[in-house]
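Case study.
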Amino acid sequence: MAAPSTPLRAGFEYRQAQEIRDAFARHGVRYLFIGKAGAILLGFPDTTQDADVFAERSPDNGRALVIALRELGFALTDDQAGDIERGKDFIQLKNGPFDLDLVFAPDGIERFEDAWRRHIDVEGFPVCHLDDIIASKAAANRVKDHDVLPRLRSFREYWMQNRSRRL
Amino acid sequence: MRDEEQIQLERSWLEEFEAAARRPLETRMRYAFIHTYKPVLDDAAYRAFDTLEDYRRWCEENLPDWLGYGRSFDSA
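After joint prediction, the assembly is written out as follows.
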């Protein structure tokens, strides 16, 4: 197996999620945590490697996102900043203090605005509703999504039943 | 899977959900985010794809199957 060209790093931490939340808030970035990272924020006990962020695709939001990411320590070239400002569908960042996947058009979700209307706030972290996370994983239909879906759907039942108690 | 096995599995999931609900978010995150090296995927500092379809195709063509990024042919 080839040696990694990027240094190995520790897992994403709560403190880093706070840094994203705070930097994105300072610059008015419209985004939601999505994927398994989003489910984990909602209470789903599982493991994952990095954080996935669903960002609204608009020129203003793209510019704000670039400023916030640079402030967080992501070393973005001008070309890479251009990709983000244009909102390419999927961008993988491993050039900062933690790994971050930016998705502007997740499978299974029609528009950012729809997901925003349904989103859940967890300690100031904006998170996609579990139904959107499940829809996205079902539509992506990768082997790793397929493996997690039964347990995630079971968690959805538990979460819906217990949500009112926690809010 | 037999019904009894499924019931047992769902019971164990429920126990996990309840245990997680008792932990603060910071603790849950400490248990949840674990970084392990993923061949190919972790070998570049930056990648961008015009469409998700391009990304899915790239994963299928470049990543080892065992990473699980390939399309599932079972119904989800």
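Observations recorded in class. Residues 14-166 of chain A form a domain with the Beta Polymerase; domain 2 fold (CATH 3.30.460.40). The radius of gyration of chain A is 16 Å. We will return to this complex in the next lecture.
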